[in-house]
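Section 5.1 Outputs to date
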Amino acid sequence: MKFWLLKAAGTLEDEERILDDSVVTIGWAELPDLSNKNKEQVKQLILEKYPGMRGGLSETWAGEIYSFITKIRKGDLVAVPLKARNEVLIGKVTGDYEHRQLSNFISHIRNVRWLKTFPKEYFEEEYDVDFNSPEALFPIKADSEKLSGLIETKSLEALIGELSFALEDLELMKERMLELVNKLAETEEIPEVRRIAAEMEKILK
């Protein structure tokens, strides 16, 4: 099992589409179906579409597209940083390459099962990656323990327990807020009003 960073999420609407449809994409929707194409053929299609492109750049992009089609395997993990929010999606690849037009950006896809999300800052530090690097697709180095942690899923019982605790905390917060609102309504002292307002702000954070 390999772990890949895939920086191709498109617009906000495209990000919602990959979430809803459980797919990842390499972009390049302007290219035709790439099934059964080798790397050189992919490069030629890029140059036909953009004849003024430098050879080195077309070689790099063709390599990334070809890796998306052939080197990512079912069972591999992918990390997709989103543009519209400070999150990285983690998914497990469940399907081979398909050409299916889902938007102006999404047509070259792989099916995935979304597992979890991480804050971008945490992910960059934990896995030593740079989301500002020019590469769109590359493997991430991670030991077996980290990979196992990514695919672990909590039991329904554990999730219900966490939800129960969260609801209890919410109820306690609600009671404390009502208490503070009542105090605020009763007092006319400005310093006291400020103290209660500050306490309410802490609770809401």
